[in-house]
Amino acid sequence: ASRDGTVKVWDLVWDGDIVSATEQRTIVTGGEHGGPVYAAAFGPGGRLLATGGDDATAKVWDVDSGRRLLTLAGHSSTVVNLAFRPDGDMLASGSLDGAVRTWDIRPEGGREWLTLARHQDVSFDVRFSPDSQRLATASFDGTAILWDANNGQQLHSLMTTPAPVAAAVFSPDGQRLATASFDGTVVLWDANSGERLRVLEGHQGRVTDVAFHGDGHLLATAGFDGTVRLWDAASGEERHAFAQHELGVERVTFAPDGRHLASAGIDGTVRIFDLEKRSQIVALAAHEGQVLGITFNAGGDRLASSGSDGLVKIWNTADLAGLTTAEASDLPLLLTLTGHQSRVWGVAFSPDGQRLASIGADGFVKLWDVSEEMGTEPLNRELLSLGPNNDGRDVAFSPDGRFLAATSGTGLVRIYLTSTAELMALAQSRATRDLTPAECRQYLRQSTCSLPPEYRTPQ
Question: CA-CA 20 to 30 A from 324: which of 46, 94, 141, 223?
Fold first, then answer.
C-alpha cells in the first residue's frame, strides 16, 4: 500500500534464503481512495484483499480479477489498519477518527449504508433535515450532533448542558435546530453554524421531546412535569400549557393539518388538542402501560402509537376536525402490530405512508407494510427486522424515503437503505459468489439461480 494511491500485489519466488518478487497486478489505482492508501490486508486463503485510505472507507477486492466487491463507508477519517477474522466473515477497520468498526462481509451481510459513531452513551433521537442532506442526533451523553447524511461526516457537535439531550429536531426550513434536555431547557440553534440562538425555560424537570409546527413559528414541548407547552419560536415566549396528562409526557407531535397536536403519556393515554381552541378533544386509553412513541402519517388521517406493552397501534384520525371538547372520546383502532419482544420506544411512517418503522428495547427495528386497507389484519405485515443492536429510543425515515435511521444503546446511529432497487444494487455490489441451491430456495424461492455475469467472482 502506497502514498501514491496504489496497491500492488506481487508474486514471490523463494530460492533458499533469497526471495524475488514480480509484480502481478495493480489492484488499486490512484484515485480509488482519493489519496494515499495506508492499509492493506489479505483475507484467509488470499482470495480477498482489503484496503483503507484517505477517503475514510475500507474496500474489499477480489485478488484474482482485481474487481472491487465492497465499499465500507462509516468512518469519518483516514482508515489506517485492517484485519480479517480468521473465518473470513468479518473485517475490522481502525481509523484516525478513533473508532474501530467491524463489518459483516458475508454474501448475506447487512443492509447498513452508514454508521455514525460519536456519541458516548445511548442515542435518544435521530431526525433528518427537510432536504434529507443532514441528520441530527441527541444522546444521553449531553450532546446533539449534526451530520452530513451522505457520508457520515460530523458537521457540528452541540453541547447543551451536562444533562442528557432527549430530542433534536429541524425547523421546516432546515435553518434552525431545537434540542430538548433533561435539565428542563429547550435550546434553539442555527443549524448551519451551530450557534446557540435562544434558551426556552418553563418546564419543571426534564423535557423529553420537542416539535416544530409546520409553519415554523410555533414549538411544542413535552415534559416529565405532565405538561405539553406551546412556544413562540421567534421570541421564545410561552403561549400555552396543556396539563391534562396525569403523569409525565414522553412525546409530542403536530398533525399535518396544523390545527391539532398529539401527545403520548406515561399514564397510558394519547391526547389530542385543538390548537385554535386550546382545548383537549381526544383522551385515548391507548396502551397497557406507558405510551412511548407517537406519529402522524403525511396525510394526517392515521396516527401510530407504541408502548411499554410491546404493541404498535394505528388509529383513524380522519375526523379530528369534527370533534369538539364535549365529544372527547376514543379513536377507531385500525390495526395492532405484534412482534416486538419488549417495549417499543418509537414509530415513524414512511413519507408515502405505505410503511411504518418501529424500534424496540429488544434491539430490533421492524418495518411494517401498512399500505392495505386496515379493516382486516393479514397474518403478517412485517417486511424486515433489522438488529439485534438497534435498541435506542428513536427511528426516522429521510424525507425522500431513501433511508431509515435507527438509534442504539451504545450511541451508534445506523442508516439503512429502504429502496428495493437500491437494496438490490447494494446486494449485487457486495456479492462475492453465486448462491448455493439451498440459498436460492431459502431467499429467492427458486430451485437454482446465479449472479449476473458482471457480478460473478472467478473461482
Answer: 223
How much is the pLDDT for 256?
A: 95
Contact 91, 392 (CB under 8 A): no
> Residues 6 or more apart from 258 whose CB is under 8 A from it?
213, 214, 215, 275
Q: What is the pTM of this model?
A: 0.73
Q: Which residues contact 103 (CB under 8 A, 6 or more apart)?
A: 58, 70, 72, 90, 91, 92, 93, 109
Q: Could you tell me the strand order of the sheet in which 57-62 lies?
A: 37-42, 48-53, 57-62, 68-73
Residue given cell 526471495 in the structure block: 19
pLDDT in tens, 52-90: 999 888 999 988 888 888 788 778 889 999 999 888 888
User: What is the rounded distance in angstroms from the CA atom of residue 209 to the CA atom of residue 346?
Assistant: 12
Write down the H helix ranges in 299-450: 420-430, 437-439
Rounded CA gap, 82 and 90, in Å? 11
Look at residues 354, 365, 349, 344 and name the one whose alpha carbon lies nearest to residue 398. Answer: 349
What is the rounded CA–CA span in Å between residue 329 and residue 74? 48
Q: Residue for cell digits 460530523?
A: 154
Q: Which long-range contacts (CB under 8 A, 24 or more apart) does 173-177 make?
A: 173/130, 173/216, 174/129, 174/130, 174/131, 174/134, 176/216, 176/233, 177/136, 177/144, 177/146
352 grid coordinates: 408515502
